[in-house]
Amino acid sequence: MIKEFKEFSTDAVLKIADEELLNFYSESKNVELFTFIWTRKTFATLEVDGINVTLEPNGIIVLTPNQYLKFIEGQHLTVYQFNREFYCIKDHDKEVSCMGLLFYGNNTIPIIELDANNQKKLDFLYNVFLDELQTVDNIQAEMLRMLMARFIITITRLMKQQSDFENVYNEQIDLMRAFNSLVESYFRKEHSVSFYAGKLFKSPKTLSNNFAKFKKSPLQIIHDRIILEAKRLLIYTDKTAKEIAYEIGFEDASHLSRMFKKHTSFSPSEFKKQLKLEPEGKY
User: Fold this and answer.
1) Is 283 among the domain residues?
2) What is the rounded CA–CA span in Å between residue 120 and residue 127?
3) What is the domain-level CATH number for residue 182?
4) Is there a single domain that holds both residue 147 and residue 224?
5) So what's the pLDDT on residue 279?
6) Gap between the terminal Cα atoms of the chain
């Protein structure tokens, strides 16, 4: 089952489906759309950016368009996908507060666990979505966008609750989100904390102090994003280590090689060789 809304004047796309939609990702490929995959009563197995992920029942995994997805197995799933033309999370961030947390968080793949109460809430919302997809009129697009905003707000709240942010001020969470969003925009050229601190009108020390409760320093987050991109390019393209280094802002490939080896225990070339030897999902 695949239900799709298209708005030809804006190229907006919204898809609501079951696992049939994920058959498109039987081989690893760029997900291209903002994606939520929701398991109901059974497990699902996916490969995300070369890493095997088992999604337990009553869970939701959140994927950003630049990630790579391979669907391995799963049944009775609910899948939401949309493009930025349908709902631009950057333009609507004041409403939904998901940039740099739910999407482009840079640290881990967001996975949300649903209790019975939240399952009931999202089931209700799912049925309203389906009903609205059948209602074709001049406000259908706006109604669907309002529903998606409500869905994203619900998932973002759950993400915050399940991320041990109880003792973190909202201002600190917003600063972290803003930092992550900036890293996503500039990591290919800017690798220093001072650059991002300047963009946020903070000193590097103030930035580091605010990140103390998030278990990763600002520099670690920058490096993690660089390494993630290097891995993606090594796994999914035929680019050389030198080409990859240049693409993500290193004039000297040896600088990336040292950083990569520190994080993975392999140089980029050794990592590339391992891809041919190791089973999929072991990277």
Assistant:
1) no
2) 11
3) 1.10.10.60
4) no
5) 52
6) 33
Contacts of 49 (CB under 8 A, 6+ apart): 67, 68, 109, 228, 231, 232, 235
Asked which of 118, 136, 161 is the last residue of a domain, the reply is 161
Co-location of 137 and 195 in the same domain? no
Tens of pLDDT, residues 29-81: 999 999 999 999 899 999 998 889 999 999 999 999 989 999 999 999 999 99
Instruction: Considering only residues 168 and 211, tell me which one the structure prediction assigns the higher pLDDT.
Output: 211
- Asked whether 40 and 78 are in contact (CB, 8 A), the reply is yes
Q: What is the average pLDDT value for the chain, to the nearest integer?
A: 88
User: What residues are paired with 37 via a beta bridge?
Assistant: 61, 79
Looking at the fold, whether 19 and 149 belong to one and the same domain comes out as yes
161, 187, 221 - which closes a domain: 161
pLDDT, tens digit (0-9, with 9 covering 90-100), for 17-30 = 999 999 999 999 99
**For residues 216-242, average pLDDT:** 91
Separation of CA 115 from chain center:
22
Please tell me the number of Cα atoms within 13 Å of 84 on its side-chain side. Answer: 11
pLDDT computed for residue 281 by the predictor:
47
Query: Residue 282: inside a domain, yes or no?
Result: no
Given a cut of 60, is residue 148 above it in pLDDT?
yes
Q: How many structural domains are present in the chain?
A: 2
